[in-house]
Inverse folding.
């Protein structure tokens, strides 16, 4: 594979050094450009989740939608950032669901509430690729799964504009460069499970507001 951790380390280091200091915590992002793939075909679309081995470097907010019994257990364990009970779910209108979709990175739910979730929240969460992950109604299983979600990024072609490019956050500028490179390699491995290496035209890294630095291509 022509992509190595050393290549990413060098490019990330250069990208961070070239970026001006900002008064907010900037992300470090990857851009992957493709060639010879027709992304208008549904089977070629990219929609993958990657667990970053070194985490995202910033808080990831997760809301759980559960029935009353599981809500009590979740409150004790403090596993998620927000608990939406089945009763509260039934009071949500479209405006409130949009607000929740903006506030939270991921949603999780127990199987019993999913039909109601689909009806009430589906029209908003579906197009945003934020439909809840269905977790077993067993509190012991939730902790490792939620911890994984806090390190997860979603990589996808934008619907309606299936451009030959995807973007992926790999951390923040305050993280160790070696850790950022390890995250970048995890993203590349996931992409290469979906497409052939020869279909990758180029790869760049950059900070949120900084210039792009070519990794390869």
């Amino acid at each position: 594979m022509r992509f190595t951790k050393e290549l990413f380390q060098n490019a990330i280091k250069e990208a961070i050094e070239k970026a001006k200091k900002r008064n907010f915590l900037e992300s470090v992002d990857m851009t992957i450009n493709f060639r010879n793939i027709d992304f208008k075909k549904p089977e070629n679309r990219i929609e993958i989740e990657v667990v970053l081995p070194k985490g995202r470097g910033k808080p990831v907010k997760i809301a759980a939608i559960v029935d009353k019994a599981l809500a009590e257990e979740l409150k004790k364990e403090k596993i998620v950032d927000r608990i939406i009970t089945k009763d509260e779910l039934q009071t949500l209108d479209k405006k409130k669901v949009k607000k929740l979709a903006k506030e939270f990175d991921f949603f999780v739910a127990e199987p019993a509430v999913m039909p109601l979730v689909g009806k009430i929240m589906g029209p908003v969460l579906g197009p945003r690729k934020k439909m809840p992950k269905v977790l077993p109604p067993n509190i012991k299983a939730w902790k490792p799964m939620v911890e994984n979600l806090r390190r997860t990024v979603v990589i996808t072609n934008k619907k309606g504009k299936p451009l030959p490019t995807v973007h992926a956050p790999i951390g923040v500028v305050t993280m160790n460069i070696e850790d950022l490179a390890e995250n970048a390699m995890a993203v590349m491995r996931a992409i290469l499970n979906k497409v052939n290496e020869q279909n990758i035209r180029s790869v760049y890294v950059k900070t949120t507001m900084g210039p792009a630095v070519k990794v390869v291509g």
Observations:
- Residues 118 and 176 are 40 Å apart (CA to CA).
- The chain is about 35% helix and 25% strand.
- The chain has a mean pLDDT of 92.
